[in-house]
Structure formats: C-alpha cells, structure tokens
Amino acid sequence: MRVAMIGTGYVGLVTGACLADFGHVVTCVDKDPAKIEGLLAGRMPIYEPGLEDLVARNVREKRLSFTTELAPAVRDAAVVFLAVGTPSRRGDGHADLSYVYGAVREIAAAVEGFTVVVTKSTVPVGTGDEVERLIREVRPDADVSVVSNPEFLREGAAIEDFKRPDRIVVGTEDERAKEAMGEVYRPLHLNQGPLLFTARRTSELIKYAANAFLATKVTFINEIADLCEKAGANVQEVARGIGLDNRIGSKFLHAGPGFGGSCFPKDTLALLRTGQEHGVPLRIVEAVVGVNDARKAAMARRVIAALDGNIAGKTVALLGLAFKPNTDDMRDSPSIPIVLALQDKGARVRAYDPQAMEEAHKTLSGVDYRSSAYDCLDGADVAVIVTEWDEFRALDLERVKSLLTQPVIVDLRNIYRLDDMKRHGFRYESIGREGTTP
Ligand code: UGA
User: Fold this and answer.
1) Residue 206 belongs to some domain of the structure
2) Which residues neighbour 337 within 8 Å (Cβ) at sequence distance 6 or greater?
3) Which terminus has fewer CB within 10 Å in the chain: N or C?
4) Residue 231 in domain
C-alpha cells in the first residue's frame, strides 16, 4: 500500500518508518529542506532509540523515502497521514491548527482517486469536520474520506509502542475508509493489537481523554507523595499497594517532579479550552494543570532546603535535563524551572544529560555542561537527580561521596533505596519518602 506521511516530526517519522517496516511504501514529506536533507543523509532530527536503524533499513529496502515535494507523494498515495505539529497557541492554550489546515489545502489540491486522509496530529474534537470542509472547498470533486487515528506512542519507547499497541483507535464511519485503515494496520491486527473503530469525533476525544487521565494519575500520586512526606508514609509502597488493584493499575504512579514533555502539558490545556467552548467545566483537569505547574516551580525549593537554605554561591550538579529518559526532548521539562530558580538564588548550576544537553543549551543559559555524571559531581555541593536515566541508577556511591564537597543528594525520581543511602552516609531527600541523614 502506498502511504504519504506529512510531517517528519517525532510522530510522523516513527509512524512512517514503522509502516514501511510492515511492507508499505511510505513517502515522508516535510517543508523543512534542512530536515529532509539530514534524513536523506541518515541523520535523525530527534533522538529515539532504534529509529536510526529502522529508517536506514527501510530506506535501503526502498520502502521509505523523504522529500519536500508534497504533491507527487499525495497523488500516488492511497492513504495520506497528517502528522504536523499542533503546538499550544500562545496566550489561550488552544491547539494551533494552522499547520494542519495549511497541509490540508495542499493535500486537497494534489489528491487523485479515492484517498483516505488520516489525522494523526493531536487535534481538538471537530477538527476532522473542518478538514473535510476545507478539502471540499478546495476540491469539490475530490473523492476523499477524512479519518481520525490518534497516536499513543511514548517518547523513548515509541517503536516498541507502535509495534505492540494496547489498541489502535480509528475514527470513521465510512466503510471504504475502514477497509483501507484495516489494510494499513493489518500486520498489527494479526498480532492481536485491537483495532477500535469509533465515530470521528469520539476518536478525537479519546486522545485527549487518555492523556488527561494519565496526567491526572501522575498528579494524584504526586499529591499523595506530599502527604506521605508529612505523614511519615512511603509513596512507593502506597503506589504499589493501590496499583495491585487491577481497577487502578500500577502504571503512571511514579511520584516525581511533575509531568512535562510535548504532550501532557499541551493536551491538558487544549482539553480545558474545548470544555470551555462547549460550556462544560472540566474541574479535575483544571486542578491537574494548576497543581502540576505549582509542583514544577516548587522543586528548586527542595534543593535549597537540602542545603539548609544556603544556596548562594553553591554549586549544584543536575543529573538529567530531559523531561524523561531516552529522549533529548526538553519541552516543558521540570529541569527548566529548577535551573532558573537556582540561578536566580545565586547558585552555580552544572548539568549532565546523556542526550539532552544540545537541546538544553537552546533554552537555558549559564549552565556548565559536563561530559559525564562523575565529572558533573566533581566538586559540587549537592547532586540533584532530575531525570531517571538508567546510567544514574547504579552510580558508585562511595565515588559520588568522595567527589561531592558534602554528601547531599536530592533525588526527584526515587531511584535509590533509603537504606543504601543511609549506609553510605548521605543526606538524601527524595519524593514522598522520609529523608536520611548521615
Ligand atoms: C504521552 C503518553 O504517554 C503517550 O501515550 C502519548 O502518545 C503521548 O504523550 C502523546 O500524546 O504524544 P510522553 O509525553 O512521551 O507520552 O511521555 P510519558 O511517558 O507519558 O510521560 C509524561 C510525563 O509524565 C513525563 O514528564 C514523565 O516523567 C511523567 N510521569 C510519567 C511521571 O512523573 N510519573 C509516571 O508514573 C509516569
């Protein structure tokens, strides 16, 4: 099957490469010539484990190609995926659909024969109707079916998530489109990945409801963590104790510095806007957004408290900058408000992240970037674990102790055991657990 993928961001590139790996012939289109040039030369615009190999293999097999020319790719395709960005519009939190509509006009002008236009970009309820209207406006004669097919990939585990999905949601009531989408996902379906057909608006809402629910789960456990600290309980054990109940489930119950990334913050805001437009208050989501923003802003205070308030002139070593491991994505990362607040209080900030330092450099200034975790800790007054990269999980604690001027660790991801920290004589402050003192 011939597929055109419009947009080679994280979603477009991963989806395009995975569909090519299933045997479809995929052309990825992007307006940015530098990006396409890079991809043609085998350079990935993002860091995602396994992606470079997957792309190289499918380019070699001639199933995957890259171009800036939208029209020929669309003309030849039976299915055209829209995977352009829908960032938060400045000021009102609404999803900015200008890239989507821009691409739709171009697609409409280029389609030939029956074509399924699939919105993979995260778009508010009703966008599919508007896409359809636009296509009819530009090309009243076009034989097109507009489908919603949200993505549920996690950065850092995107290929695995694509190949082993919990479900594939397809929003269409058109039989021809159902058949085409069944064909696109046949390899996954054969693999037991359930294909859930819904009405288009329902499918659009499923995406936002899923992300808002997961963001709520994370925020819930974060607040319980705050309570654990005051009440002398352990949030990891609470999470385990509730998560073993199948109705609750154990995933997304890791307390931390608050959610970030390119999805939860943007999608929760966009869902609130949708609620407002329909006159339906979404008070839980509203609270989640407020609580999470306040949480990220408060994380630096934990570092300052671990140094008994004496932060000015101190050197803080941050381990991890990305919003989560296995990505270089810095969007809405909790590390950003932490760095800004610490610098504001007169601390010197150093950092090491296995992948995100180049990205961080674009957002943060005055940070001393180091080449390894130990280099970062050497001579620092406090270590702060911000992102739970695997390589931070088994640091040589005696070496860490000898490198720091004083044995103080603030762990915002709970990746160490309290008894180990106590045994090695650290002052160790984590999330939702009792602190240890040497
Ligand atoms: C999220 C969803 O998990 C995907 O299903 C969805 O497709 C994607 O958004 C999207 O809309 O594109 P992602 O943003 O890559 O994926 O990252 P997650 O793994 O969901 O983590 C989001 C944030 O929550 C991170 O800041 C992470 O550190 C935090 N988190 C997650 C916790 O603090 N605790 C947890 O238990 C889980």
Assistant:
1) no
2) 296, 297, 299, 300
3) C
4) no
